Amino acid sequence: MRIFIAGATGAVGLPLVRALCALGHQVIGMTRAGPSVDLLRELGAEISTADAFDAAAVQTAIATAAPDVVIDELTWLPADPADIIKSLPNDTRLRRDGGANLLSAAQAAGVGRYIIQSRGFYLNAPEGELASETAKMRYDAPGEVGNSARAFGEYEDHVLAAPSLDGVVLRYGFFYGPGTWYRPNGAIADQLRKGAAAIIGEGSAVWSFVHIDDAIAATIASLTADPGVYNIVDDDPLPVAEWFPAFARWVDAPEPPRMSVEEARKAAGEEAIYYHTRLTGASNKRAKSQLGFTPRPLLWKAK
């Protein structure tokens, strides 16, 4: 296939380009001009330099590439996870405006399949239950998290409703493994070693992770799977109070201290509290059934 990937040099984009090229696909990687171009060139991908916010440039890029599939892996995330909330407005704008430009261009070019990265940790499910693919985003989340959830939900709806293409929504869990924040030498481990990370309140929010390589495998499987929504998460959704200390042990870091909700509200804001007390884990049953998804056990669960 000819596969156009927007966000081709990101945490998912680059290993996805590598895997697809190795499988013999013709990959066109979209990125802004700069050093990242060389990362794509050395993998053997074609290069398309365009800014996702420039609708005309995106239209030209996709029309020129004439792909069978467009994959949107665009993100705007900081190198330091402490800045995640600050970066969310830009990430939300990229999702809303950049995604709209990509989708419009794909439809105009007659692309057959359109795959997007969505979030498997903004989902609404009853307490104590895992969110299925029918779950909606948490539109009532506070502040920038709510804005982000609404942008993702609207984008999902537009993709799935597009009559001229097969829309696929991949709701990834929190990435861990090479090139991510969650690895032995990653940003979260560094925070723990500096004593800069804590469990807020009861740490009752349930997180679903996915190893980056398992996410890549599921994305490749989605090239030919039935259209629709898939939760790309592992089998081990755990509350923050359980997974965070286990992660600290896995990376040989001190166990995270506790912080009260009141302290966190002053120091970090409502969004941070939400991440530690309200998030819901997700079910991967459909991905296992339809994509042959076989995620590895969470690497630090038993540590």
From TrEMBL:
<dbReference type="Pfam" id="PF01370">
    <property type="entry name" value="Epimerase"/>
</dbReference>
<dbReference type="InterPro" id="IPR051783">
    <property type="entry name" value="NAD(P)-dependent_oxidoreduct"/>
</dbReference>
<dbReference type="InterPro" id="IPR036291">
    <property type="entry name" value="NAD(P)-bd_dom_sf"/>
</dbReference>
<dbReference type="InterPro" id="IPR001509">
    <property type="entry name" value="Epimerase_deHydtase"/>
</dbReference>
<feature type="domain" description="NAD-dependent epimerase/dehydratase">
    <location>
        <begin position="3"/>
        <end position="232"/>
    </location>
</feature>
<protein>
    <submittedName>
        <fullName>NAD(P)-dependent oxidoreductase</fullName>
    </submittedName>
</protein>
